[in-house]
Write a structure and sequence with these properties.
By secondary structure, the chain is α+β, with helices and mostly antiparallel strands. It has one domain. It has helices at residues 3-11, 40-47, 52-55, 61-69, 73-80, and strands spanning 19-24, 34-39. The longest helix is centred in the N-terminal third of the chain and has 9 residues, at 3-11.
Length: 84
C-alpha cells in the first residue's frame, strides 16, 4: 500500500466515491476553518504528491488557494479587493 492509500483507508474514502471533502487550514483573516469538495481522483493524486494545480485543474483557483492557505474566497476579496 502507498502512503495515500493507507490514509484513505483510515478515512473511509473509496475510489468509487466521485468527490470528497477536504478540510482546510484556519483562515488568517476570519479565523474559521473550512472544507472544499474535490474530485476523488484529484484527492488521491494530491495525497501521493501531485501539485495542487495538477491534481485539481478544474477547481477554481480561489478554492485551490483555500485548500493550501485556508483563506476563503470571500476573505481574499475582503483582504485584497478583487479576484486572485
Amino acid at each position: 500500500m502507498y502512503k495515500g492509500e493507507i490514509k484513505m483507508a483510515i478515512q473511509g474514502i473509496s475510489a468509487t466515491d466521485r468527490t470528497v471533502f477536504v478540510g482546510t487550514p484556519k483562515c488568517s483573516w476570519c479565523g474559521d476553518i473550512g472544507e472544499v469538495e474535490v474530485p476523488t481522483a484529484g484527492f488521491f493524486a494530491r495525497e501521493l504528491g501531485a501539485p495542487i494545480q495538477e491534481a485539481y485543474p478544474e477547481l477554481d483557483k480561489a478554492l485551490r488557494e483555500q485548500i493550501v492557505s485556508g483563506t476563503h474566497p470571500e476573505c481574499w476579496t475582503e483582504m485584497f479587493g478583487g479576484s486572485h
